[in-house]
């Protein structure tokens, strides 16, 4: 590779850094003031590029019209952001942090379908900006002039934001509210207006990023997830709430990606390393390294710990008679299900899926609830279990039964390594690092064609003959699922479960009585990984094939939704939540093409009506019913 | 006989500022030693170095003659150094007795037991400790609904669970009414005498300090500027200048 | 007797299911310093927070400067001229002293009022003048306490609610707080002081209410409270 090529690639990286910075800056601002991790920020970016496409194709013929269209698109997205804040977020500022995340995730589902409805599923290639259609030649290589413009826009926006935040009263109020919003209100500042304006500004920046990105990448329906993934990484690497940090991190990550592309195929010690393939993993590796070395990001400061989920948890007590009876009834119903509905019926197949989902959710709840560690990447251990079992079965020729036994071991090993890093962080940073590890696993699986079959996945993963009928497999799944739940329950009532809660309630105090947070949390992480691995293994053999989708972000998010829907305070929560979610998903998906939007609306409805999750809300209702005030 | 706690030339800087500067003092078993000084004088830093949360730049902390610098807080706790915090709190998802059981479980190194129910471990011992602080009637209540004064008592029971030789108490009576302050300190003094424990505590409430401390040491800007009996310290002009001020806002009547 | 500046009556407040204040009532006239005395957990802080609209569940009548504020939002209450200095100071540690003051600033309510400016405040708090460009997090405990009061004054309040200024600070700083409050009183600002430290309250207050378990148990002049040993024994002292 020539130096010239490297230089051009680095310039290209700078241009990419600008859009990355715009979206991350907005996300960081919003988080700083409202403490909401806005999962819908990628959707706002996507809306920016679609709206810009429509405007530019109408009025973007001239230079003036083009840039007016870009700014107008940003203003449109800012307005949408303001509406979202006023109509939805304002109602949930006092809700637990994870519920806010759930609500914004629901927004991404809705925006997906709205965009699909309005613009269709085709990628839309935007025209290039008038006056910037040419390229200049650097060392004999073409560099689009538009990229040069982008390189300038990044620092320009950084400068403007800096002036806004340090030189205006609005900026001072924003910085004050970032620290203590109630105090700001007590000093006579209308924080509702402040919050709406911040959300609008953040959304506008994301929209601007989307609009500016249009000439580089066509508007497409996958942009939202890519953008939010990138933005999370940038914000976390830079430090939550730090705008200069976001700029620095955007530069770092865009340049490392550019470098990977520039390096191309390199031979090292006899190994051929293909660096371009490394781009997907690169940003997450950078994030993992930064978080381990500087747990609060490059320019960030330690955050207060994540607010506790809902109100203070009541002490745990063994299930009451009522609950025991319901449990027994459900179990009995499940035992006769294949006989009543038919061994190969859809109900039995669906029941297998649901049981796998329950085990997945229970394992996630184990570290999120009693453990207090909010994992955004729980799909990693599910995927490791699934791929581990499938590969040992197909490639290593292991019997199916043995491969299934190996699934939790693989999940456990993954959790052992990833957990070692994760438990050194807390709150949002821990959540992001778990997401990063899940993405690393996903990228490796996706790109290691020879081993994992890449995007095609692995097929022909079928259970042994004695488990070949759906009914037999159902009973196997039921047995393992119930055993998993009982095991988790046992651990939660044992000293170790108490130690996990002690660390969560107060790590400082736990340490003062000789309970080391890191060891306890790490152990909890590993147990959850192992149980999740079982779910993954069961999943692989129930489907007969697996693909990288098994490890996707959306599976991790599904897990979060299940746990939060059910309620995080009790072990029944994740069970109720996963069953509700999966039945809902199944029935909604069969009703309409726009199932995502419908699911999103249902989630928002549930968040607004059941702020403590379904099981939690029922629990407090029944308490109120028993004890009249 | 070697004193229970010997602190020698303890020093720690943050960003070039000496937060604790060559501090030395001793503490005997059964003694209540008050550590007083203006906010930011280095009291917390001092505490954190004794219990292992912070590593001193130089100096020694000897417990029963053994240097414990460089040990982790957990290990220091195992050697018999208990701690209570300025803002008392419990493990709020547990009952009162479960809080104490947790400490006993940890003391017996059973934290990683994952089979038998935690409720079965050390229930009687936990009840005894709660009785000592007068909280046995509240054993099965959720600790999150206790009144603040009661939370302080539970914290004391938790701190006594590993039979400590030395208790570090950070503003033990902060946020309490005068009467509760006296009750809590009288209880502490009684338990300390019975169990022959040494106590090092920080405190801003001067009536508490003068009523209960056997001796006091005064820190200002990281340096130890005075030590001795209540009278000696009260009349020290240096202490007056940096800490007591005119004395007109300090409770006039000292009662034990 | 002049009309009350702040009149609270029948005030009830709740935290979740817990009922904290029971039909509590008191009055403050313009320019007066009133102490709310009582032990921890008696409901003093809750009373002040309820007046500021910082407690979600409250009922009862609260009138301030002729307006009914019992259902008003916090920022509207503040804009009417009611300042709040919380117990834990809550200054903005990332902002400089001047920026902290900027957050507190509100336009004057009428033209006759002499408005507080940073320069005027620096005369009252000379320590802050030297530290004007320093961020809040690097101030000493005493300076933070002063800044918290100064920041509230920037809103040109008619009345300040001061929550336990003497709690958890060294005696010498309590001393300085007393001097500051005496100076402040001379500017005509009314103050409601929640306190446990009787000597401190005696130095600065005109009248006192004793609160116990969410109810008013005594009201009278500070002098009457000081002279009533039974009362002090029952609710305040050892």
Detailed description of the structure:
The complex is a heterotrimer of chains A (629), B (256) and C (238). Mean pLDDT of chain A is 88; it is low at 305-310. Helices cover 72% and strands 3% of the residues of chain A. The longest helix of chain A is centred in the N-terminal third of the chain and has 32 residues, at 3-34. Chain A has 629 residues and is mainly α. Chain A folds into 2 domains: 3-129 and 136-253 and 260-265 and 273-293, ABC transporter involved in vitamin B12 uptake, BtuC (Orthogonal Bundle); 333-623, ABC transporter involved in vitamin B12 uptake, BtuC, CATH 1.10.3470. Chain A is built from 25 helices and 6 strands. By secondary structure, chain B is α/β, with parallel strands linked by helices. In chain B, the strands form 2 sheets. In chain B, strands 6-7-8-3-9-10 form a 6-stranded mixed β-sheet. A 4-stranded antiparallel β-sheet of chain B has the order 2-1-4-5, with helices on one face. Chain B has helices at 43-50, 73-78, 96-107, 123-132, 148-160, 178-195, 206-212, 230-234, 237-244, and strands at 5-14, 17-27, 32-36, 58-63, 66-67, 81-84, 166-169, 198-202, 215-220, 223-228. Chain B is globular, with a radius of gyration of 19 Å. The two termini of chain B are 31 Å apart. Chain B has 9 helices and 10 strands. Chain B has 2 domains: 5-90 and 146-244, Rossmann fold (3-Layer(aba) Sandwich), CATH 3.40.50; 91-145, no CATH class. Chain C is of the alpha/beta class and 238 residues long. Chain C has one domain (4-236): Rossmann fold, CATH 3.40.50. Chain C is built from 10 helices and 10 strands. In chain C, helix 3 (97-104) packs parallel to helix 6. Chain C is globular and about 45 Å long. The model of chain C has no long low-confidence stretch (mean pLDDT 88). Chains in contact: A-B, A-C, B-C. The A-B interface holds A 312-316, 490-491, 493-499, 501-502, 504-506, 508-516, 520, 523 and B 51, 72-74, 77-78, 82-83, 85, 89-95, 98, 101-103, 105-107, 110-119, 121, 142, 144, 158, 161-162.
């Amino acid at each position: 590779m020539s130096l010239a090529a490297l230089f051009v690639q680095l310039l290209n990286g700078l241009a990419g850094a600008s859009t990355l910075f715009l979206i991350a800056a907005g996300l960081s601002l919003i988080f700083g003031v409202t403490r909401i991790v806005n999962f819908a920020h990628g959707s706002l970016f996507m809306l920016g590029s679609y709206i810009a496409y429509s405007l530019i194709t109408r009025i973007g013929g001239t230079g003036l019209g083009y840039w007016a269209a870009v700014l107008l698109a940003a203003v449109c997205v800012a307005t949408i952001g303001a509406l979202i804040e006023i109509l939805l977020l304002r109602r949930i500022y006092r809700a637990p942090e994870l519920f806010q995340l759930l609500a914004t995730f629901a927004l991404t589902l809705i925006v997906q379908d709205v965009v699909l409805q309005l613009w269709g599923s085709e990628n839309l290639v935007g025209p290039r900006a008038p006056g910037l259609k040419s390229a200049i030649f650097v060392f004999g290589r073409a560099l689009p002039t538009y990229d040069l413009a982008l390189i300038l826009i990044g620092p320009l926006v950084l400068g403007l934001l800096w002036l806004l935040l340090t030189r205006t009263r609005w900026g001072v109020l924003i910085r004050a509210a970032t620290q203590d919003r109630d105090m700001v209100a007590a000093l006579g500042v209308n924080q509702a207006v402040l919050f709406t304006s911040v959300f609008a500004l953040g959304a506008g920046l994301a929209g601007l990023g989307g609009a500016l990105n249009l000439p580089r990448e066509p508007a497409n329906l996958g942009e939202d997830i890519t953008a939010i993934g990138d933005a999370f990484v940038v914000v976390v690497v830079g430090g939550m709430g730090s705008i200069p940090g976001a700029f620095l991190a955007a530069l770092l990550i865009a340049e490392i990606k550019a470098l990977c592309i520039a390096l191309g195929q390199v031979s090292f010690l006899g190994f051929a390393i293909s660096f371009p393939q490394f781009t997907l993993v690169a940003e997450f590796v950078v994030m993992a390294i930064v978080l381990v070395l500087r747990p609060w990001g490059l320019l960030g400061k330690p955050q207060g710990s994540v607010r506790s989920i809902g109100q203070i948890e009541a002490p745990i007590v063994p299930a009451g008679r009522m609950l025991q009876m319901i449990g027994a009834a459900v179990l009995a119903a499940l035992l006769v299900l294949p006989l009543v509905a038919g061994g190969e019926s859809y109900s039995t197949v669906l029941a297998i899926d649901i049981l796998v989902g329950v085990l997945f959710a229970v394992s996630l709840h184990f570290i999120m609830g009693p453990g207090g560690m909010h994992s955004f990447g729980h799909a990693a251990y599910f995927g490791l279990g699934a791929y581990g079992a499938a590969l040992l079965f197909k490639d290593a020729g292991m019997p199916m039964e043995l491969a299934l036994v190996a699934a939790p071991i693989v999940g456990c090993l993954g959790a052992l390594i990833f957990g070692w890093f994760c438990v050194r962080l807390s709150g949002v940073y821990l959540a992001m690092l778990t997401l990063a590890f899940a993405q690393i696993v996903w990228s490796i699986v996706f790109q290691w064609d020879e081993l994992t079959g890449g995007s095609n996945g692995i097929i022909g993963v079928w259970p042994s003959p004695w488990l070949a009928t759906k009914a037999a497999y159902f009973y196997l799944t039921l047995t393992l699922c119930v055993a998993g739940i009982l095991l988790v329950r046992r651990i939660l009532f044992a000293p170790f479960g108490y130690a996990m809660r002690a660390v969560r309630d107060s790590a400082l105090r736990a340490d003062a009585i000789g309970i080391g947070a890191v060891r306890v949390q790490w152990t909890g992480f590993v147990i959850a990984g192992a149980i999740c691995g079982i779910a993954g293994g069961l999943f692989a053999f129930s489907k007969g094939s697996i693909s990288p989708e098994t490890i996707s972000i959306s599976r991790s998010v599904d897990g979060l939704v299940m746990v939060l829907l059910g309620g995080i305070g009790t072990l029944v929560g994740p069970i109720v939540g996963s069953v509700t979610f999966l039945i809902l998903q199944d029935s909604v998906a069969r009703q309409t093409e726009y199932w995502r939007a419908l699911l999103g609306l249902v989630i928002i409805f549930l968040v607004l009506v059941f702020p403590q999750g379904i099981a939690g809300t029922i629990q407090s209702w029944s308490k109120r019913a028993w004890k009249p005030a | 006989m070697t004193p229970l706690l010997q602190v020698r030339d303890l020093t720690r800087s943050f960003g070039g500022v000496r937060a604790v500067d060559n501090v030395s003092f001793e503490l005997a078993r059964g003694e209540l030693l008050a550590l007083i000084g203006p906010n930011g004088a280095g009291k917390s830093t001092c505490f954190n170095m004794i219990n292992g949360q912070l590593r001193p730049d130089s100096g020694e902390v000897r417990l029963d003659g053994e240097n414990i610098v460089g040990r982790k807080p957990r290990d220091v706790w195992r050697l018999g150094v208990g701690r209570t915090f300025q803002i008392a709190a419990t493990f709020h998802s547990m009952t009162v007795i479960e809080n104490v059981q947790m400490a006993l479980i940890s003391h017996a190194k059973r934290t990683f037991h994952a089979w038998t129910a935690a409720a079965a471990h050390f229930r009687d011992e936990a009840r005894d400790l709660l009785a000592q602080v007068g909280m046995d009637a509240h054993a099965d209540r959720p600790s999150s609904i206790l009144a603040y004064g009661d939370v302080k008592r539970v914290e004391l029971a938790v701190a006594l669970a590993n039979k400590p030789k030395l208790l570090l108490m950070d503003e033990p009576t902060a946020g309490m009414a005068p009467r509760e302050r006296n009750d809590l300190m009288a209880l502490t003094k009684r338990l300390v005498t019975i169990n022959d424990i040494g106590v090092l505590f920080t405190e801003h409430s001067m009536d508490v300090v003068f009523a209960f401390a056997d001796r006091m040491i005064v820190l200002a800007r990281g340096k130890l500027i005075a030590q001795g009996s209540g009278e000696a310290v009260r009349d020290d002009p240096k202490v007056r200048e940096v800490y007591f001020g005119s004395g007109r806002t300090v409770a006039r009547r000292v009662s034990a | 007797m002049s009309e009350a500046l702040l009149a609270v009556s029948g005030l009830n407040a709740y935290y979740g299911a817990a009922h904290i204040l029971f039909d509590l009532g008191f009055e403050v006239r313009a320019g007066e310093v009133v102490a709310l005395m009582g032990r921890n957990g008696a409901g003093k802080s809750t009373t002040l927070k309820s007046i500021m609209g910082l407690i979600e569940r409250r009922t009862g009548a609260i009138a301030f400067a002729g307006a009914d504020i019992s259902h008003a939002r916090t920022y509207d209450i503040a804009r009417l001229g009611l300042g709040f200095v919380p117990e834990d100071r809550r200054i903005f540690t990332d902002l400089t002293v001047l920026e902290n003051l900027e957050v507190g600033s509100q336009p004057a309510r009428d033209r006759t009022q002499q408005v507080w400016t940073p320069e005027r405040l620096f005369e009252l708090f000379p320590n802050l003048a030297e530290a004007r460009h320093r961020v809040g997090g690097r101030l000493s405990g005493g300076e933070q306490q002063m800044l918290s009061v100064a920041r509230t004054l920037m809103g040109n309040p008619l009345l300040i609610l001061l929550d336990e200024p003497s709690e958890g600070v060294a005696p010498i700083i309590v001393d300085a707080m007393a001097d500051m409050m005496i100076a402040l009183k001379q500017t005509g600002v009314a103050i409601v002081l929640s306190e446990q430290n009787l000597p401190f309250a005696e130095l600065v207050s005109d009248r006192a209410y004793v609160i116990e378990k969410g109810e008013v148990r005594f009201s009278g002049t500070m002098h009457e409270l000081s002279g009533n040993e039974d009362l002090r024994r029952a609710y305040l002292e050892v």
